[in-house]
Amino acid sequence: MAREVQRGANSVLGVEATLWQVPETLSSVILQKMKAPPKTNDVPVIRPHQLKEADGFLFGFPSRFGVMAAQCKAFFDATYELWASQALAGKPAGIFWSTGFHGGGQELTA
Q1: What pLDDT shows up at residue 65?
Q2: Tens digits of per-residue pLDDT, 42-61?
Q3: pTM greater than 0.85
Q4: Which superkingdom, per the lineage (predicted)?
Q5: Which residue, among 83, 82, 63, has the nearest Cα to 73 in the 3D structure?
Q6: How far is 110 from 44, CA to CA, in rounded Å?
Q7: Angle at 77 between CA 72 and CA 82, to 5 degrees
Q8: Which phi and psi (to 5°) does residue 107 adopt?
């Protein structure tokens, strides 16, 4: 879904959309036990300070019972200095999300 959003944004004249992923918070042992699919190697991991470089944002994340993934929450929690200093003030932002079940709480996610 994120790649399609990126493709759409890049189709707008003068827009260059970059795809990032947030850092993983679980150990490889836990991910293995969960049978989590491997992370893609062609999408770099973003750090909070890199948000200052962007002109705007579209954040996308999975939703389960109306809550974003813990990795996304940890990333947003790590941006507290940016918000406190208003380093991102005036930059447009949006969100998109998906869930695997029609009753998965997606109406609460936003």
Answers
A1: 75
A2: 999 999 999 999 999 999 98
A3: no
A4: Eukaryota
A5: 63
A6: 25
A7: 115
A8: -70, -15
